[in-house]
Amino acid sequence: MLQEWLLLAHVIGATVLFGTGAGIAFFMVMAHRTRDPILIAHVAATVVIADTVFTATAAILQPVTGYLLARSIGWNLSEGWIALSLLLYVVTGLFWLPVVWIQLQLRDLARAAARSGGALPPSYNSLYRIWFAFGFPAFSAVLGIFWLMLTKPSIALF
User: Fold this and answer.
1) What is the maximum span of the chain, computed from C-alpha positions, in angstroms?
2) C-alpha distance from residue 9 to each of 73, 81, 131 (Å)
3) What is the pLDDT of residues 106-129, one digit of tens each?
4) How many C-beta neighbours within 10 Å does residue 114 have?
């Protein structure tokens, strides 16, 4: 029974990570396309809250539920597909953490532009391009983790 609850928690956590990430990316891109500092500031502020409440919580719980699930099933964490999943999880985090900081900067730059009634500064555009580019490896890594978790392929890493 515990194993089923751990599996459910793990799947929900993965869904929250994937869904929140995709949703945040969609809304940030759509807001950016308007070039409206007021709208961008509002959406970026909401995105920062969503990342804190949903993504960060799920990101913390995923390795916990994964470890407990693997332990209850009897899987060794050094099994190829698990080790590769963990590596991809770290890769995702390495791209996600700077994205959170960038979202805060984008929000603050858009707020300043909205207050002054001016356009978004060039630094906003530079940060946005980095934010956008970092989404691709993070998203790809998450897709890879989903594939590994669903197929559990036999992978010899050592």
Assistant:
1) 60
2) 15, 20, 29
3) 999 999 999 999 999 999 999 999
4) 17
Cα–Cα dist 111/37, whole Å: 7
Residues with Cβ < 8 Å from 128, sequence gap 6 or more? 32, 106
Q: DSSP per residue over 133-158, as a string?
A: HHHHHHHHHHHHHHHHHHH-------
89 vs 117: CA distance, rounded Å: 41
What is the residue whose two structure tokens read 């949903």?
54
What are the structure tokens assigned to 61, written together?
């719980």
What digits encode the pLDDT tens for the residues 8-43? 999 999 999 999 999 999 999 999 999 999 999 999
Angle between helices 80-116 and 2-34 (to 10 degrees): 30
- Please check whether residue 66 is in contact with residue 137, taking contact to mean a CB–CB distance below 8 angstroms: no
Concatenate the DSSP letters of all residues of 73-136 into one string: HT--TTSHHHHHHHHHHHHHHHHHHHHHHHHHHHHHHHHHHHHHT-PPPHHHHHHHHHHHHHHH
